[in-house]
Amino acid sequence: MSGEVSGIVDEMPRLSASTQLSADIARPAYDRAALKPGIVHIGLGAFHRAHQAVYTDEALGKVFGDWGIVGVSLRSVDIVHDLRAQDGLYSVVTRNGAGDSVRVIGSIVKSLSGTENRDEILSLLADPATKIVTMTVSEKAYGLDPVSGGLDRNHPSVAADLANPAMPVGVIGYIVEGLSHRHAAGLAPFTVLCCDNLPTNGRIVRRLVIEMAGARDPALANWISGQGAFPSSMVDRIVPAATEEARVRADKLLGVEDRQSLETEPFMQWVIEDHFISGRPAWETAGALFVSDVEPYEKMKLRLLNGSHSLIAYLGQLKGLEFVRDVMRVPEYVTLIRRHMAEAVKTLDPVPGIDLDHYMDQLIERFENPTIAHKTQQIAMDATQKLPQRVFAGAVETLEKGGDASSAAYVVALWIAYVRKTAEINDPRATELKAAAAKMTEGDPSAPFFAMPGLFPQALVENSAWRARVNAEIGKIVAG
Q: Which SS3 state, helix, strand or coil, does residue 40 take?
């Protein structure tokens, strides 16, 4: 523990493989020294380390194998250096009203940075020991063209990787270059498992990879098309951005310093299509659900959890409420969230093994968790990448079934009011959004947003009654 003697401050020791943890702290239930890498994960952020790495850590304790994770951060070097200094170890603190529990995770055996270790990353992708490549890089990082559904060739990383494929900078570029090395060496491809909030994410990534591969070598694209595997998956766990307060709390629980500690909720879900080329960890022993079709689960989560989260985010930002839990303390707002779920749930197909009424009640309970400091500003980011699948798609289906999609209209109105009010927004189309906000008129305030190419589905653009509903909601919000 830290202290001060004769004017000298003793620093708290760092978490490492040599740390003697107290008996009440959960830790890897396997021999880390025997753990060899089998997974490369791109996107070494908080969500991966509180979700897939936890599932893998738990599974390794039940059924051991060569499934250590090499974590890759495409941009940041700080997290890579911190994890190296801690022998890949970090803590996850689970919080709810009943108290805190801490667990040290050991499934990450190495961490690399795209800015410092490109050659080593490519070598690992070409290594036959690498069986699976997973990723959590956020929707905007894929370079997805919202109009065509294929590659956006103006996306910075896509353009760079098409121009210089041997020196990749983006996630699709790395995957294609790694698969190219394996193709040339006569090896089987690795399985590509997307863990981002994209509907049918496996099919989307497959299309992007094959399209980029085809731009350089049609034979490579044909090989990937015939031999590759791109299972879809649905992931769920609320993981707030790390704060200094959270780190101090983790250090007290551990008795050592952990610069990459995380806080999260108890709930955790992972639904995966069981289509892997060269095996996989026994993730089911850690609670993952393997299914033949992930789409019903994806749609459920995107429209009920993520759609409600967007409503909460823009409501919170407009009302000066910093955290999700603050919004949930206002009964009127909880009513609005339940109304949104009630509208969205009518667009869902049956979800095997899920009681949707219970799921919605569970979401409210999770949002209300008083110990989770999930910022509405964080959720509000990247709306042009998120709202199409979270809100717009459901609105189209609701209108097709004869509903009025009034709650979806309200969410869109909140978002437009947020863009209009907020000086600097974090969105890949921020310049277009601010230009649209500057063109808003009293008679048809939403028109500049509906005119943005590839943003709203054509069915919504052409629905004058629904657009009038959005405008009416904007008027109420602005007046209020």
A: strand
- Residue 191 corresponds to which amino acid? T
The candidate with the shortest Cα–Cα distance to 456, out of 420, 429, 417, is: 429
**Cβ within 8 Å of residue 182, ≥6 positions away:** 125, 126, 128, 188, 189, 190
Query: Residue 5: which pLDDT band, with cuts at 50, 70 and 90?
Result: very low
Residue 335, judged by CB atoms within 10 A of its CB (0-12, 13-18, 19+), counts as exposed
| Side chain identity at residue 458, one-letter code | Q
- 105 with 49: CB under 8 angstroms? yes
Q: Which of 287, 283, 344, 280 is nearest to 311 (CA)?
A: 344
CA distance 250 to 257: 8
- Give the burial string for 314-334 (b: 16+ CB within 10 Å, else e): bbbbbeebebbbbbbeeeebb
Q: What is the CA radius of gyration of the chain?
A: 23
pLDDT of 7 > 60? The answer is no
CA neighbor of 58 nearest in space, from 232, 281, 233: 281
> Contact 82/249 with Cβ under 8 angstroms?
no
Element (H, E) at 108: strand 108-113
pLDDT digits (tens, 9 = 90+) for 201-258: 999 999 999 999 999 999 999 999 999 999 999 999 999 988 899 999 999 999 999 9
Alpha carbon distance 476, 480 (integer Å): 6
Q: Judge whether 407 and 392 are in contact, CB under 8 Å.
A: no
Rounded CA-CA distance 300/219 in Å is 38
Amino acid letter, 210: I
Measured in Å, how far apart are the chain's first and last C-alpha atoms? 52
Quickly list DSSP for 353-384: T--HHHHHHHHHHHHH-TT---BHHHHHTTHH
Strand order in the sheet with 37-42: 108-113, 68-73, 37-42, 132-135, 191-194
Say if residues 216 and 223 touch (Cβ distance below 8 Å): no
